[in-house]
Amino acid sequence: MLVAGSTSACDVCLEPFGGDSKAPCTITCGHVFCVDCLANINPPLCPLCRKIFDPRFTVKLHLDLDNVRAPPSPNGASAPNDDDARRLYQAISNIAEAGCSETQVRQLISEGKSFLQKQPKDSFKDLRTLYRMVAYLCEVKTTLRAQNAANEALKREHAQLQAEKNELVAKIEQQLRVREQERQAAWATESSLRDHCTKAHEAYETMVQQVSYDLPSPEALD
């Protein structure tokens, strides 16, 4: 919740909210605890929903909106500014408790900006703080989405480059296999030629020896 009622108590120490160290503070998930308990939470995880929160965006609550009453107008109706502020508070509370779409958050940011720009700068301080927190978180989400999209694009590019690399490696391996086959074929051809030459030389030597045996000696010719 974002509103501390007059009978509300801290969900950690169970003591009623009060001033100073027992002042109610809301964290980014929307739950409210006293200042003392928040100071002792380490690591910064909400004791109720266990969501991580940023201590920099802890908002101290000073108003009990259930008991706030605007000065009556002449016709007995509430002041329009207080009604709009209460509606914005409630809208932010609904976001923290139930969540909503990004479109709804941006619509709320636009409405809050339009409302606060028309008010004195020193008015609705808590609402201004909550508005800045919601706007900041929305921008963080937008940035994260852009970063995720960039990461996905890099992953796709990496996958494409990896596929091209694998294709080139396969071609190189194929060329190496072809060259190895050609080398083995050349070696086999060379070995065959060497064997053929050796056999031809042996046949030639045998033929020369046979011819020399058949020729008459010089003495026989005399």
Automatic annotation (TrEMBL):
Cross-referenced Gene3D superfamilies: Zinc/RING finger domain, C3HC4 (zinc finger)
Keywords assigned: Coiled coil, Metal-binding, Zinc, Zinc-finger
Pfam families: zf-RING_5 (PF14634)
Domain RING-type: 10-50
InterPro entries: Znf_RING (IPR001841), Znf_RING/FYVE/PHD (IPR013083), Znf_RING_CS (IPR017907)
Superkingdom of source: Eukaryota
Coiled coil: 144-178
GO molecular function terms listed in the Swiss-Prot or TrEMBL record: zinc ion binding
Protein name: RING-type domain-containing protein
